[in-house]
Amino acid sequence: MTKSELIQRLAEANPHLYLRDVERIVTTIFDEITDALASGDRVELRGFGAFSVKERGSRTGRNPRTGDSVDVPSKFIPYFKTGKQLREKLNTHG
Amino acid sequence: MSNQTITRAQLSEAVYQEVGLSRNESADLLESVLAMITDALAKDETVKISSFGSFSVRSKGQRIGRNPKTGEEVPILPRKVLVFRPSQVMKARINAKRSPGSAA
Lengths: 94, 104
Description:
- By secondary structure, chain A is an alpha+beta fold.
- Chain A is 40% helix and 30% strand.
- Chain B is α+β, with helices and mostly antiparallel strands.
- In chain B, α1 (8-18) crosses α2 (23-42).
- At the A-B interface, α1, α2, β1, β2 and β5 of A face β1, α1, α2, β2 and β3 of B.
């Protein structure tokens, strides 16, 4: 499922809304999560999961072609931990 | 750096501010979005949200684990796990605002 398919499904489930508004709703949700992570917050959606940002320290890497060592600066990595209910849903088969 | 925890309340408030719907309906729509993602993943579908990231389901085989307290061997049954891969856009945004020395 892509973002546009998600928008389509949400629009079908809510025929009283303009497609344009459904698009804005979906975009807003993902933008808010990204904004929160970018400002150092975590996002916790009970039952679904939690997004957080972890810092990965600087390290010395190597150019795989030449073998030269290169300094890789520290960076922030977004991380998702699956919520309990979602994890259970993935593992139930009817 | 604010280090707060954002929950459904703030996300549905953002939806409420963005589109002229009631707070209740905004909260319901957020819930629907999460439910639709969950349903797709439960069917082993990959969910790709452009400029955000993708969620995919990975199957793990059975392996032998150990009870760390008793040392007893226990089989860990095959199961499915969810993997989130952030998009380049998200990674760039997270590092742009936070990296030291960036003009902000």
